[in-house]
């Protein structure tokens, strides 16, 4: 059972049209945009469809308009996740804003999870009946039924009109060709049948831009972390770090940069081990102690010599020092 899946999983490559078709067929709704499910009520009922009866549907609000009401739905969803021990993090603050990309990604995860439970089978689940227990559920069922009936009613006149136009074209194709071209060009400029197609293309482009920006920010953050690591004092002088920085700071897309970095790594390295501060201090201390021992030894030798000399020799030595003009002799 999938709870946490990576960003490169195939679930995040499912298109918006397929997601909408899956939601509408499973819950008998008529959503036209994924962000229409930002209230969290659809997510709660999807979990109720997978685990039949696990969601307290009387706490779900299908008529939620404010962020406060939407957050209550997500609290119900979080309780269900906790009960099922699902560790997926719900970014409520982003979802309630109604952003297309955030809602699409979370709904892609929902589809991946629902498909992983019992093979995605939701047999014997009556979505409209379960939705009647929710706040705004009955109104939602009525709106869904009205939209479906109006869509069917609009499809029938279009078919009859197309067949009638085909018959007219069979009778006088040369006369009707100019008029038909004029009729088809006018609706496109006045926002006719081609407007939904343009809206769908614009939505797809927005989703693509949001996805590319998110991917760009993700990899830029990784590169920034590597740069900060290379600037650490402990490793900044290493050859491999210099090679990495050469690639990071390259201003053009040239293969020679990678070759130069590899040459830096393969070149013979002469490493000079820096002296440790502790070792330097110990050497200085040892030299000072040696000097002290030499001084003490000289003093001991002088004292021993003085004791062995006779009084006459001592006086003669003192007179020699006096004659030499030493500042120590003042008499």
Helix content: 55-70%
Q: From N to C, what is the helix and strand string?
A: HHHHHHHHHHHHH
Q: Tell me, what's the shape?
A: elongated
Largest sheet: none
How many H/I helical runs? 13
How much of the residues is beta strand, in percent?
under 5%
Query: Gyration radius, to the nearest Å?
Result: 43 Å
Name the structural class.
mainly alpha
Mean pLDDT: 74
Number of strands: 0
Q: Low-confidence parts, pLDDT < 50 over ≥5 residues?
A: 171-192, 318-331
How far the N terminus sits from the C terminus, by CA atoms, comes to 107 Å
Produce a short descriptive summary:
The protein has 331 residues and is mainly alpha-helical.
What would you say this structure looks like, in words?
This protein has 331 residues and is an all-alpha fold. It has 13 helices and no strands. α2 (41-50) runs parallel beside α3, α7 packs antiparallel against α8 and α10 packs antiparallel against α11. It is elongated, with a radius of gyration of 43 Å. It starts with 15 loop residues before the first helix and ends in an 8-residue tail after the last helix.
Question: What is this structure's SSE topology?
Answer:
Blueprint: H1 16-27, H2 41-50, H3 67-84, H4 92-95, H5 100-116, H6 127-131, H7 137-171, H8 173-189, H9 194-230, H10 239-248, H11 255-266, H12 277-308, H13 311-323
Helix pairs in contact: 2-3, 7-8, 10-11
